[in-house]
Design goal:
Order of helices and strands: EHEHEHEHEHEHHHE
Shape: globular
CATH superfamily: NAD(P)-binding Rossmann-like Domain
Helix content: 40-55%
Number of domains: 1
Oligomer: single chain
CATH topology: Rossmann fold
CATH architecture: 3-Layer(aba) Sandwich
CATH class: Alpha Beta
Number of strands: 7
Low-confidence stretches: none
Bound molecules: NADP nicotinamide-adenine-dinucleotide phosphate
Distance between the termini: 40 Å
Strand content: 15-25%
Radius of gyration: 17 Å
Largest sheet: 7 strands, parallel
């Protein structure tokens, strides 16, 4: 039996990178997947990849920084598949790289809205649907920067520390009702979030920051998210799981 047989799952930011890898793996493991992304073209590409392999999924265009969109995504999951059991709140942006004195309030607010408020909006609507289903589980995408700082990334670091915090709170608030909530903290992962924004020289420097001497792959993050989303992780909740090639051990 596959790990997520008969489960219904939402993955946000599933049109690219880590979210795409998670949506594909969830589907391969038997979940019916709501592929959610703000970018319709990329989201539909992920949908096609899943359906071409004979697995079940729908696409839902949604901005995680918009609470109403997050509600519509949950409503669509329940309308199409009858319930919601799993959510991976993965969508996020890098934001502008600048020290605090040069970062505008609008730059800061934009990253907080998508990377932190987006996780709250998602869980706010996902949890009642999971309670109706008799329980569920949530994985929120944090980062190594949910544990340590990085000069020039104050909005991102603040948001990801917040994701770790709200994950602990959600876990405490719903543990007795059968909902597990965990956060994943990837090191630098070779996805368009980085490859579209950095030069090859910068990529080389970033690889060297990891004791394993390379960046991670989206599929490696997806394996951890799958485990957390599955019954195999039945005693984990409120935890933060780094996956970082040794970055945080330094
Ligand atoms: P990615 O390749 O850029 O994929 C993110 C996806 O989310 C994109 O399709 C993006 O669309 C979409 N998105 C952006 N804003 C959105 C919004 N407001 N609502 C819904 N979807 C939105 O990034 P990734 O590297 O896979 O990152 C996924 C998550 O992992 C993020 O939370 C990120 O912070 C986290 N993470 C990444 C790394 C890394 O090194 N890559 C490390 C640690 C943590 P557009 O492309 O159109 O913006």
């Amino acid at each position: 039996m596959r790990l997520l047989e008969n489960k219904v799952a939402i993955v946000t930011g599933a049109g690219s990178g880590i979210g795409r890898a998670i949506a594909q793996l969830y589907a391969e493991e038997g979940a019916k997947v709501v592929v959610s992304d703000l970018d319709e073209q990329k989201g539909k590409e992920t949908l096609t990849m899943i359906k071409d392999k004979g697995f079940e999924a729908i696409f839902m265009k949604a901005d995680v920084g918009n609470a109403d969109d997050c509600k519509k995504t949950v409503d669509q999951a329940v309308k199409t598949y009858g319930a919601l059991h799993i959510a991976c709140n993965n969508a996020g942006i890098a934001g502008k790289a600048a020290p605090i004195g040069d970062l505008t309030p609008a730059d800061f607010d934009k990253v907080i809205k998508i990377n932190l408020s987006g996780v709250f909006y998602g869980m706010h609507y996902q949890i009642p649907a999971m309670l109706k289903a008799g329980g569920g589980n949530i994985v929120n995408m944090a980062s190594i920067l949910g544990q340590v700082g990085m000069a020039g990334s104050s909005a991102y670091v603040s948001a990801k520390h917040g994701v770790v915090g709200i994950t602990k709170n959600a876990a405490l608030e719903y543990a007795k009702e059968g909902i597990r909530v965990n956060a994943v903290g990837p090191g630098f992962i070779e996805t368009p979030l980085l490859t579209n924004n950095l030069s090859e020289e910068q990529m080389k420097q970033i690889r060297a920051l990891h004791p394993l001497g390379r960046m991670g792959k989206a599929t490696e993050v997806a394996e951890l998210v799958l485990w957390l989303s599955s019954p195999k992780a039945s005693f984990t909740s409120g935890n933060y799981f780094p996956l970082d090639g040794g970055y945080l051990a330094q």
